[in-house]
Amino acid sequence: MLSAKSLFQEILANDESFALFCSIAASGESQGGWENARIAALVPESERGLAPKITRHGADEDKHGRIFNALLKKRGLDPVPVPPETDYTMLLEKNGIGLAHEQLGRDERLAVRDIVTYLSHSRVTEQRASEQMDLLRKHFADDPDIGRAVKQISNDEDNHLAYCHEELLRFAYAGHGRDIQRTLRECALAEIRIYRDVSLAVMANMGRILGWSKAKSAMLAAGIHAMYAYERLGGWRRMVSLEMPERRDALGGPASTAPEFA
Question: Are the C-beta atoms of 116 and 176 separated by less than 8 Å?
Answer without folding.
Answer: yes
